[in-house]
Amino acid sequence: MKSTGRLHLQRNIRPAVGSDGPMKRLGVDLHNQIGFKGHKYDVRSSSFESSGKVLPWTGSSSNDLISRRGVFSRRHYGSVELLPQLDASGQDPGGRRFRIENGDSLGEKEEIFGSPCTPVLENPEFQTRWYFKYFLGKLHQNYVGSDVDKFPFFLSVVLTDANHQCVPQYRAILWRKTGAQKILLPHTPHKPMTVKQILSNFPAMDKLEKGPKEIFSPEIQKDLLLLEEQEGSVNFKFGVLYTKPSQLTDDEMLSNENGSEEFNQFISLLGNRVRLKGWDKYRGGLDVKGDMTGEYSVYTIYEGHEIMFHVSTMLPYSKDNRQQVERKRHIGNDIVNIVFVDGGATQMSQFNPAFIKSQFTHVFALVAYDSSDNSYKLVVYSEESVPLFGPSLPCPPVFKMPQEFREFLIVKMINGEKATFNTPTFAKKRERTLDMLIKDLYSDYMSDSSKVAMLNRRAFSDVLPDPPRSSRRKEEARQVEFVRIGQALKLDTIVKGDAPTSLATTGLFKRAPWEPQCFYPDFGHDIMCGDSWADSRLVISTENSGVFVIEDGVSQRQIFDKTIQANQLNVVEAHGILLFRTEKGRDSKIYVFRLSEFDADIQTEVKSKPDLKDHKLERTRGCSMYAISKPGGSRLKMVICVNRKLTLMQWKHSAAWTAWCPASDTDTVEGFMYLREFQIAEQPSIITLIESAVGGNSDTCSICVGYKHQFDIITDGSGTAQRLFAVQEGTKAHLVSATDLYEDEEPELLLCYNNTCHFQKLSETNNTTEFDFHWNSIPKDIVCSFPYIIAFTTDTMEIRLIINGNLVQTMAMPKLKLICSKNDIYFATTAPEFFHGKMERLQMDQQKAERESMSPPASPHLSPETKPLRLYRIPLNALTGVVGPYDRKCVNETDDSNENKTVENLKLSESKSRTSASRSCTASPTTGLNATNLLLHKT
């Protein structure tokens, strides 16, 4: 069933969870409830059932609730299909609809791909639990106040050095009833930001009637840690249900006293068999004193997450109880259930989620084993209100390597449970809990004057102010006590096992799909712009040193001298031309050269200003920017902005003609034909050219124009501008980009302003922001590479999933600069690591390092400007998964000895942590990805 529903990018929030259950901190002990139809819930759990009857679903339609991104989403993440509304006994199961992911492609047969991405955890705790990682146990400031609607809020601010990369940054968390909003802001030396300036970066927080008051009580750390813990538990419990062929009811499935040999083999793959009596780790609601819930269970650890499996054949079996209430009590209250279908993949078609009469289980992972080739097949059912989550299934969804299947399944289940917390039911519970907690804390701190602004009544003070001399000793004593209490809280949380993922057991041999490869290890010029040329070359324009061609593994070569500075540059390989725009203001022009002029065997001299004379494109003097059509289109088009005028041009040869007769396409400036001009209201800051086949005419196009507070669309032909999207009134807008996604035979734009991403289809007039998501930092550039979307700032690379906006990785990279993303993604940074394949340069740098080792050591706060730029490449095939980029090695995730490492490393001094974060031999430009540093930075 094809769906044209919109992307539903929900907030990255989850309801309260506890160590033993996802709703424990909401005052609901779900392990003492029964989640199956016919058994009564406690009223506190917002029951779905009453007197054995299923209440009707009152949520929105699937088109409103389900997040999809065009044809890619339906191919990889399944479609919403209305399953039969009768269960095996002929009764109405409540009309629940499920999304089915079975790996089948809904596109053309030749478009079938494998898994588009390596299994990665979405919203991982070491990325999202900011307060535990960056604030707790360190000196920081906290404030309390109320917004314009009189709702209370708390604000936490800390000045940190991101992963010891000499990049000082402000991290701020705004605690509200809707969840914690986070933002990362650059720090300018000798110019600290005020609290008012920090608050202005959050929506609707720049017009407060009263400034927030600073809280000096060290106990606030415990309260804020409790607020952060409402985001979700770090440990999980999953049900595992064994079913034989022809079993169609949950009563029959739960009545299987023993599993088959294949099922037992699958159970041993999931984790270790553990004795429950005396068990001192995460128990997942099972009894560990008197064997009341069975003698044994299955337990594992994955990337720091403790997981307890509720295995149906290991839970107590009752011959007299056909409904097996004790088993239902646990499996029925698990958000995610694994259903192992005995008899092979042919039996999977008989399963229907309606067979399992649980209103609490939202995700079913259906598993079948094929003994002929030792493979597993996976099909996933998700209740329609659950937002999309990854990783997407390969096509076909068959796994022939058991350890890879184990990793994929565990990641899929963890992501599924996190996604379920964003359903309306769980989100409302979580908001009620946060609202109650924040109101209580607000009342407590505002009524007790000794806890708020007790030193010098600082309001809107600098984030790290110097206290007056009269109170300096008192302030220093308070700071020492503040840090001591925070460190004690952090250690206590780790010892209890409730700390966010420690990374002590992460798969350290597994390389992330976005892990960069070094392209050129030492480039000594500041980069303005650039573009890729073929598979192994870059054309880079510098600020004051000219334009260079850099080849992978070959030294750089200058093609234009320092008198020429290109502010924009494009390599158009389809027609063999180089486009670039020079200078600014009235002298700005666009030039066109043949790429063949810059081959190493042909070019003998570096070109200078006199060489530009015959290559100037007419009608471009005074241009402030230009945009060209995407590679692969039928025609090369270019739109040029001069003041308030847009000029549309087109290359006179089609791409097909050039491919057929490449020797005949030798034009430069004469190759561009003038088409038409458009007058616009004001000079724009962004222009994007969008090719669209309107009415079957492939020559038509549209132009997206970004002004101060809005994006307009100009359609070729009519020439009139229409409002596409306007930034909310009263919001200070900084337009970043307008990216053409063009999916599902319909162009769609990703509009980015401030730290917000907004999806807008050109055919829709409503400007709903329901699907927006927010970056932690304000980007300078945005790159879309399905299934990922990457934001580049001045010192961080933030990676999210385009399907739901979930964060998967943030990497600190000093002096970060995106070069291009036409084919592979190229960027520059001052990160110091070296890579395999660059042995000659590595040896040179090692010799240089040896010479420098005889000198006094450099300051740990050495400015990153003194380091050379290194150029990196992220291969697109690694991101999209068309080609398997790496061999993933699985480590023993259940090594108990790793658990104590986190506590031990917490006791390491800050100086030792900094020393360990030096050069590494990993394949990443961030020291944070080094195995040792992952653990140190976490703690």
UniProtKB/TrEMBL annotation:
Name the source's superkingdom: Eukaryota
Q: According to the UniProt entry, where is the signal peptide?
A: none
Ranges where the Rap-GAP domain occurs = 224-441
Q: Which GO terms describe its molecular function?
A: GTPase activator activity
Q: Name one Pfam family in it.
A: Rap_GAP
Bias (Low complexity): 914-927
Stretch list, region Disordered: 843-865, 891-932
Q: Where is the composition biased (Basic and acidic residues)?
A: 843-853, 891-913
Q: Which UniProt keywords apply?
A: GTPase activation
Query: Which family does the similarity line name?
Result: Belongs to the GARNL3 family.
**The name this protein goes by in its record:** GTPase-activating Rap/Ran-GAP domain-like protein 3
* Source species of the chain: Aphis gossypii (Cotton aphid)
Q: What is the lineage of its organism?
A: Eukaryota, Metazoa, Ecdysozoa, Arthropoda, Hexapoda
